[in-house]
Amino acid sequence: MIQSILSNLAIILLMHLTMTVVMDFEKSLKPIYIKIITVLLNSGSVIAMFYLPIYLNDNFFVDMRLIPLTFLAFIQGWKVAIPSLLIASTWRFFMGGNGMVPGIIFGMVLPTLIALAFHPRSKLQRHYIEKIFVIFLCWFVCDFPIIFIVPNGLEIFQETAFVRASSIVVTAIILYTYIMQDRQRRVLNRHLEKMADEDPLTKLVNKRKFYELLEEKTSTLKPKHFIAMIDIDHFKKVNDTYGHLFGDKILVEVADILKKYECKNLIVGRFGGEEFIIYIGESNLNTARNILEEMRKDIKNTTFTFKDDVAVNITVSIGLSELEANDNLIQTIYYADQNLYKAKRSGRDCLVCPS
């Protein structure tokens, strides 16, 4: 029995390991593909356990099929649990045998439905006793009918209940621990990626990430692409007059204004200091100019409050450049920067476009 239990445990852990590898490629896979793979892995692990039974006596055997199904139902809900249940149940139906009907009903359907009933509570933190109770209840529903189905069923149930229940609960705890550790790892990885890609003050993408996004967006020059550089006018004077903390406040609020314009074809990043960089794609010169003029006016018409009683208004200068066929990205940014300095030399608070 112990060897069979360990074989079932190995299948369950192999399923989890495979799912972990799949989830590492989550960004490159469509959600529908993730769901299909999840269904196939879970139903496949259940089917594999049909062929590695745990014998309770010479004529009756069980397995741990309820664990993948109940975990899937409890954690992810019916959209993946029901298809997995249907696939596994259909396979078991065509396998036939005397225990086919009770094996499907009590071994798979009822435990899955019980887990689905508790699914809305799956995200509650630290309700470990409740989660163990759900697994214990699923085991009881699965094994209790032995008393009525098998000759000497009560005797078999009494002899095997402790080993069976403890093995299922321990296996569930092991699987749950691995799942939670993997979730924490992915959350930490996403947090680290965000820190690597994000400017800590303004929460805009930083220069490195902006370049990376730009490479993706400009892989084709059709339609047109534009780069704009925005610089806050007389920002040093603001810092000197009101202090660097207020200067940081202005940077954050200007970033918030620019974020309002972000969309699929418009990306805002912090270039450094008081400079921001903007990508505008799938556009033409007039549209790009109008968007930037709207940004400039929006910032100009915003009042920044210092210590609740001092109103400060700022302006920005903007330089725009178009990505030409023979240009590289650095060249285009350089041209936008040159137009930015032309805007400053022209009296600031204006936009200079490519000639």
Describe what you observe in this structure:
This protein is an alpha+beta fold and 355 residues long. The protein folds into 2 domains: 2-194, Arp2/3 complex 21 kDa subunit ARPC3; 207-352, Reverse transcriptase/Diguanylate cyclase domain (Alpha-Beta Plaits, 2-Layer Sandwich), CATH 3.30.70. The protein has helices spanning 2-23, 31-50, 66-76, 78-95, 100-117, 128-143, 146-149, 153-197, 207-217, 235-242, 244-259, 285-300, 329-345; strands at 54-55, 61-62, 224-232, 266-272, 275-283, 304-306, 310-312, 316-322, 351-352. It has a 5-stranded mixed beta sheet, with helices on both faces. Helix 13 links the parallel strand 8 and strand 9 (351-352). Helix 2 runs parallel beside helix 4 and helix 10 crosses helix 11 (244-259).
Spatial strand arrangement across the major sheet:
4-5-3-8-9
The rounded distance between the terminal residues' Cα atoms is 82 Å
**Mean pLDDT, nearest integer?**
90
Strand content: 5-15%
Radius of gyration: 31 Å
- CATH class membership of the largest domain: Mainly Alpha
Brief overview:
This protein is of the alpha+beta class and 355 residues long.
Topology:
Layout: H1 2-23, H2 31-50, E1 54-55, E2 61-62, H3 66-76, H4 78-95, H5 100-117, H6 128-143, H7 146-149, H8 153-197, H9 207-217, E3 224-232, H10 235-242, H11 244-259, E4 266-272, E5 275-283, H12 285-300, E6 304-306, E7 310-312, E8 316-322, H13 329-345, E9 351-352
Helix pairs in contact: 1-2, 1-8, 2-3, 2-4, 3-4, 3-5, 4-5, 5-6, 6-8, 10-11
